[in-house]
Amino acid sequence: MSDIVEVDARRLLCPMPVIRLQDCINRQPAGASVRITCTDPGTMNDIPAWCRINGHSVISSDQRQQEFIFVVRKNGDGER
Amino acid sequence: MTIKAVALISGGLDSLLAARLIQQQGVVVEGINFFTGFCVEGHTHAIRNRDRKREKRNNALWVAEQLGIKLHIIDIIEEYKDIVINPKHGYGANLNPCLDCKIFMVHKAHEWLEQHDFDFIITGEVIGQRPKSQRKRLMPVVASESGAEDLLLRPLCARNLPPTRPELEGWIEREQLLDFSGRSRKPQMALAARFGFEGYAQPAGGCCFLTDQSYSVKLQDMWDNRGHREYELDDIMLLKVGRHIRPSKAFKLIIAREEGETRFLSGYKRQFQTIKTVSHAGPLALVEGEQLDPRQLQLACAITARFSQGRDAESVELRFSDREKDSRNLQVKPLRAEQINPEWVIA
Ligand code: SF4
To answer: First and final CA of chain A: distance in angstroms?
Structure first.
């Protein structure tokens, strides 16, 4: 399995964290995993929604104090 | 042959309906949503406590999910500055450059279409729906100045406009498009019911803060005081939050109105001088402007104390911090309501 790519979206408000995740995912090959750390509670809704819409998988989501951490796997087209 | 359309998705009902009408004709639709920094989405409900109870959702994502389409959210913060600062076609009722904004967004969508090999663009525009940017004579202006020309289709009012290329080429049937016009929302609501859409967003006014009068006043004040119109994302974010009070040309106070705003403003402690009440519960205030001299500091504290629980106390203790480096405590007598000059209050 490839290394996890990290995205720091702390202090950014929606939709910026979603945009950061999207831009990072677009640069990765199918199968890659991205971990994004956010502080906007809106991401709890928006990041899973963005993944559902675009056919990627949320592998895990965690809340630690004020931080929301998601691991997302990029699926290729056709894996929706 | 698969025909593909890119839909401008604002998160409102009109773009939802426009995209569904085209999907129904067997066209593959993907959505595109632009983030200008002024969007009402997201930020505001993340900031204010009283809004926290509301369901937090990004309406554009919600619309895309209803339609079952992919959504591409594009950050246009930098490029958009020129639209806000120098709109060729001027502003609407406030600092909203709607016509230039539409042209720009359709232009970006057209660029996207060329890069991704899509066939045409759809928007939820309706003739006469908005006072300035959706007048019938301006519809061709958007199509031509954006460069999209006859690849721009407005499914909700297409039958009131000359046929576009998707219609002429037979990619879609003109007869199945609609002829909405005017300000009434009833036809859209009836169509939503027919499609079975519920819980869609009902935006009041426009889709962004620039249509808001009090926001525009704050933006204009910022421009006037700086003597130029350049701005950064943080500047325009801070205009969405708090009470803005300018007791002198030298500085402005941004005073949180509630806990959620205090939390949000706390994120800026390293960039600003800040004031927070210590002896009483009260708001955090950011000082935007020059380094405060002792007299200005006294005044800034007395104003901040006015908005704390200690407003009627003889003396309130506050903590002043300079970008989290130096900090010290001060005692002041809060200003009385009538001592706050109404001219200081921007919004
Ligand atoms: S309301 Fe704002 S986002 Fe909508 S067209 Fe006008 S300027 Fe653009």
So the answer is: 20
Domains and CATH numbers, chain B: 4-207 (3.40.50.620), 241-344 (no CATH)
Q: HSE of A76 in the Cβ direction (CA atoms, 13 Å)?
A: 4
Q: Is the CB of B101 under 6 A from ligand 1?
A: yes
Helix pair B77-85, B98-116: axis angle to 10 deg? 150
Per residue in A7-37, pLDDT (tens digit) is 999 988 889 999 999 999 999 999 999 999 9
Name the phi and psi angles at B253, rounded to 5. Answer: -105, 135
Please tell me the residue having the least CA distance from ligand 1 atom 7. Answer: B98
Q: What residues contact residue B119 under an 8 Å CB cut-off, 6+ apart?
A: B3, B4, B5, B113, B151, B166, B171
**How many Å lie between the centroid of ligand 1 and the Cα of residue B37?**
11
Atom of ligand 1 nearest to the CA of B92: 6
* Residue-range domains of chain A with CATH: 4-73 (3.30.110.40)
Percent of chain B with pLDDT over 90: 82
Q: What is the mean pLDDT of residues B197-226?
A: 88
Measure Cα distances from B159 to B171, B177, B178 in Å.
16, 6, 6
